[in-house]
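Expect sequence, tokenised fold; for instance:
***
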Amino acid sequence: MTTSPEELPERRQFDFWLGEWDAHWEGGRGSSSITAELGGTVIMERFDGRPGTPLQGISVSVYDGAEGIWRQAWVDSTGGYLDFTGGPIEGGMELRRAAPVDAPPYRMRFVDIHPDSFTWHWESWNETESRWDEQWRIDYTQRA
């Protein structure tokens, strides 16, 4: 007997992200709405960077039980498309994007997770110094 996707306990690993969030970063603010869709098997993000930035985007995340990883696709108002894979790390969640030929690898990390807040980091790999460099940090606070 196989386990249906909605019965996988790993599917609950992104539950901390569900909700309505205010997003704050250096020099700006925006909002994010995160919902569970399709019987809870898909996590849908709707990000609105206004008024801090004109960037708007949507991501869809799903747990791939066959591979044992999370997969996310991101599309945005600039016509951008990015895809990520990953999963839980100590103290949070991490999704990475493989490096295309002309760019470094990227990762996003969800850390400092509390019932009403978390921090999101967008980082690129610095090959010269063998380290991850932060490109954007967003502090999320759940709306009351």
Observations:
- The radius of gyration is 15 Å.
